[in-house]
Amino acid sequence: MAVVSTVIFGLLLIGGAEKYLGAEEDPMLALASKRRLSVATWNIAAINNNPFEYWITYDENPEYQRIMQKIEEFIENPGSNDVPVKNVFTEEMFSSLEGRMNAVGWPNVRSYWENDFRNRLIVSGFMKDEELGSKRLASMPDRITNTINVVRSEEPICRPTVINMYDGDLSTTAKWWNAWEKFMFDESLTIKTKDGEMTKKPYEMLQGIKKAKYPAITEQEEKDSLPLQTMCGAIFDSILVHMMNTVSKPNIWQPLKKKMVESLNKKKVPHTLEILNNVYGNSDIITLQEVSASLIDQAKHGPLGKKFWIAVPRNMDPVRDQNSVILLNKNTFPEGVVSEITERVEAAFPAGVDVPVAKGDINAITAVDTEGTPYVIVSFHGDTNGLATIPVNNAIVHLMATSQDLLKHKLIFGLDANTYEKAKSGKQQDVLEW
Question: 242, 164, 149: which is closest to 202 by C-alpha?
Fold first, then answer.
């Protein structure tokens, strides 16, 4: 089977298990004589709703260019703006947060605050600290709570911050903190799961940070990761609000942000679906990563749902909301999904090895095309450091090579591998090693 593959921000591995186990036959020559498939893979990064993520062309308002230049200067050459964290996220704010976290039974993190974080400089010691980034102490709570799709609402609920579609008043850090604290600890949100509905407050949606997945974090920080990431997330958001009100005036940057959100972010899902349908709608197989439950639902009930079987993993995670999805063209695969084998892939991981995968990262299925050719089709979202990529790759190949029911299957593997040209030893996966 030769494959014409359209690869968007991802990678496709094609062939049967024997192709990876030292077969003498030239796989490309053997494949070239067979029928062709059109395959696309795309990590659509559904969770990213930051209007300031990219520096865009925005000629309609010259303030945009000035603000972006000042943000760059603030980060690259902060000078006197590089003040201690406690000047922005104040002692009063921390004490209030401490009370909230103690009340829900989390470990106390005052020692981290007093001995470390409150004295860090906001840019050089926090925003640009590579180790903090590697530990995911600020990015993980942002990932979970940035934008939450709730039932019976066309609009998602957004955490009070600069980097999403939140439209409340962020003209002062005091106003931001009042809204942020209430959002995290008081507001109950109902989200849709594969098995029904679930109601939680945002702090209850947070997930522990595992050392197996993020090696930079210490064992103690892993134990304290829920309150620690909440504190770091609050510091992170406070710095963003402070920065925006330093480089611009609230009556300038907030209306500008609102207009950008309307144009870029609120139309992201329909634009993504439009691209998939109009550009890749004739594909035989599409594998997607980091897909939100909202996009899945709209895809099933839109034009894509008429063309494709839309397969989601059984262990889909509606809170983390980053799920791997497989679309099978109904003309090529008239019977749709034969079986899901995600659990079998995970069971093939080496014994005693903690592979850093989360719910929804792996979606593995079997299907048979109109010519009777059986396939194993996998969509996989690799962890940021790429440490799960080789174990998942090996598990799939091992499973196919040792399972009688899969020996004749061909493999289609769409993934974002997250491997590195210059990997940090023990912390990141080197692409050449893979």
Answer: 149
